[in-house]
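User: Quick sanity check before I run a bigger batch. Here is a single chain. Can you write out its predicted 3D structure?
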Amino acid sequence: MTLKQKYGSTALVAGASEGIGAAFATLLAAEGINLVLIARRILPLQEFADNLKKVYPIEINCIACDLGDRNATEQILEVLNGKEINLLVYNAALSYIGSFIKNTVDYHDQMAQVNMITPLHLLHALGEKMLASGKGAVILMASLAGFQGSGYLAMYAATKAFNRVLAESLWYEWKSSGVDVIACCAGATATPNFKNTQPEKSTLFAPKVQTPQEVVTECFEKLGKQPSFISGTGNKIASYIMQKLLPRKMSVTIMGDNTKKMYRL
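Assistant: Done. Predicted structure follows.
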């Protein structure tokens, strides 16, 4: 059974113009699924959509929206105007690398809005309709940073922990209703944002940086089979060691030390 047959004909991808979001959109387009793409900047989003339409005969609607706006979900629902969404992929996220106290509380608030509150609102609004129709899928992007305290990534890690626990909880609640939910827990991924941070390799044993396509392909392999997953063999091994073999204090210390070294803090 294809994704379109199982879930429906239209997907909404938030944070879609590049990186993992663009990889999600491309795979869905290849499956013949119509797209609603959301990003803050309309020009790169529209350019990406135009290139997709040259390859795949699908309908694509672009919505320019600041997902940090407290009314973001209402703005999106107004543009959708009742359009049925069968798959929700929430990839958008704000991050900050550095001392928690040196960042402004306003930016912390905005991170909470983009990374937690807006996906929560979208999930509630669109998930209700999926449950009513008896089919659908939700993918929330989480992160290895959210499995333990992560110094110098404090707010980002905390928001990603929220997404993972929310997705796992709804996987249980909705699994008998035909709606699949999964948290995609990625490690370092070669997205434009990741490359722009110019990270140094922290240790010789650090997991290999994945491509967005690798993350997305594995996500769809796991969707409908488990509540969350860690992408990439190296990340799975590293997480097993950190979560199962090491004391919590040591895991938190390793994360903070690695981030400090990667970003020369």
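The chain has a mean pLDDT of 94.

User: Great, the batch can go ahead then.
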